[in-house]
Amino acid sequence: MQESSTNTELSVIPSSDQKALVTSGPSQYVKLNVGGSLFQTTVGTLTKIESMLRAMFSGRHVIYTDSEGWVLIDRCGKYFGTILNFLRDGSVPLPETKKELTELLAEAKYYLIQELIDVIEAKLSNCKDSESLPEPICRVPMITSPKEEALLISSSSKPVVKLLINRHNNKYSYTSASDDNFMKNLELFDKLCLRFSGKMLFIKDVIGNEICCWSFHGHGKKVAEICCHSIVYATDKKHTKVEFPEARIYEETLNIYFSNAN
Fold first, then answer.
1. How many Cβ atoms sit within 10 Å of the Cβ of residue 83?
2. Measured between alpha carbons, how far is 161 from 255 in angstroms, rounded to an integer?
3. Span 140-182, pLDDT tens digits
4. For the chain, is the Cβ count within 10 Å smaller at the N or the C terminus?
5. Can you say whether the dihedral through the CA atoms of 109, 116, 32, 44 is positive or negative?
6. Which spans in the chain are helix H?
7. How far apart, in Å, are the Cα atoms of 134 and each of 123, 130, 138, 141?
């Protein structure tokens, strides 16, 4: 984050090896080059609280500048804007991820800003980063090839329930209740995934040749299948009908579950 300024320059006493001493008051602007990122702020901001920056710009120490008067600080500039905002306001929005908090903490420690160090460490102690999140309650693989499907089913030690649902396979118009039944099949699949999580393997197939079909597998073999679509004939054209045989789906799911347990 850069702060614009007037055209005033840092008052320094230059030396031949590009070193300088601050000789101006708190309102004077300073140009900072932090690892290639450019910032402008006041001496008053840099010396507002106890830190390494206060010591640097107190006027008691020599600082390095380039030929254009930029004060050189050999650190990454990614978080320096956050550092400046904390110096100005005494508080600053912190990153949400553990990685970014750790990186900002390293910069706060380098600049010896104890107040910011304390705030970051407090947040880190309560940080719920993605690394510490619990595992998902249920994982559902999606089939991308027949070979992958065969491998998943044959290698599973649990009973397998597969829902093949591919609305694009149909070349006819759907009956009025078909869209609703599509959703009911999907919703039941999700409910079964949660109910039998860890006890059965649920697979979703979106590449097969059917439109909506359940299959039930035990010990690597298919033992039952429920096809939920059919063709119905009207006077002028054919229609595809999607059904929702909820009771049969529950029954076959329980059958494959208990037969595999025995």
1. 25
2. 11
3. 999 888 888 999 999 999 999 999 998 888 888 999 999 999 9
4. C
5. negative
6. 43-46, 52-56, 80-89, 98-110, 114-125, 146-155, 178-195, 246-261
7. 19, 9, 11, 19
Identify the CA nearest to 168 among candidates 208, 128, 135: 208
pLDDT digits (tens, 9 = 90+) for 210-237: 999 999 999 889 999 999 999 998 777 8
HSE-CB of 44 using CA atoms within 13 angstroms:
6
Residue 158 Cα to chain centre, angstroms: 31
Residue 202 to residue 192: CA distance in whole angstroms: 8
For the chain, give the longest Cα–Cα distance: 98
pTM attached to this predicted model: 0.50
Yes or no: say if 213 and 225 are a contact pair by the CB < 8 Å rule: yes
The b-or-e profile of 47-56 (16+ CB within 10 A means b, else e) is bbeebebbeb
Other CB atoms closer than 10 Å to residue 25's CB: what's the count? Answer: 11
- CA 44 to chain CA centroid, Å, is 39
Q: At which residue do the structure tokens 């029954």 appear?
A: 251
DSSP string over 245-256: -HHHHHHHHHHH
